Amino acid sequence: MAKKSAAIQRRIRILVAKPGLDGHDRGVLVLARAFRDAGMEVIYSGLLPSPEQVAQMAIDEDVDVVALSLLNGAHMTAFPKVKKQLEKMGGKDIVVVGGGIIPEEDKPKLLRLGITGLYGPGSSFEEIVEHVRGRVRKERWKE
């Protein structure tokens, strides 16, 4: 029987966050449950953390992924701030995915920053979970 690598045996650690002033948490809580049900170790930031708090929590919790969600249109401000703070704090290898209400014209800009996923309402949990798994395997665990 082949020996499994340490990366395969380890669970993905994911921080789910809504940075800034967006108090609509029903969707992000459902998403956190989907990640948990998929076998990931989920940490929820709580409501209204600043981008700096999200980045610090990601570093402190040694997560593989930060999953950001916003419905208030602040994604072009908050998502890049989280990414920049992660890089500043030594977490440039932490995968960042985003979702929420994101207009199509904003997606290429976020993708250039390394923020992928960008799923909106109606996206399947399976698609989101597989996207996260794929990025972690490729970029974090180097499989």
Layout of helices and strands:
Layout: H1 6-9, E1 13-18, H2 26-37, E2 41-47, H3 51-60, E3 65-70, H4 75-88, E4 95-100, H5 107-112, E5 115-119, H6 125-140
Parallel strand pairs: 1-2, 1-3, 3-4, 4-5
Helix pairs in contact: 3-4
What distinguishing features does this structure have?
Rossmann fold, five-stranded parallel β-sheet, about 45% helix
Total strands: 5
Strand content: 15-25%
Structural class, by secondary structure, is alpha/beta
- Principal-axis shape equals globular
Report how far apart the termini are: 19 Å
Please, could you describe this protein's structure?
With 143 residues, this protein is α/β, with parallel strands linked by helices. The mean pLDDT is 92. It has a five-stranded parallel beta sheet with strand order 2-1-3-4-5, sandwiched between helices. Helix 3 crosses helix 4. It has helices at 6-9, 26-37, 51-60, 75-88, 107-112, 125-140; strands at residues 13-18, 41-47, 65-70, 95-100, 115-119. It is globular. 43% of the residues lie in helices and 21% in strands.
Summarize the structure.
Helix content is 43%, strand content 21%.
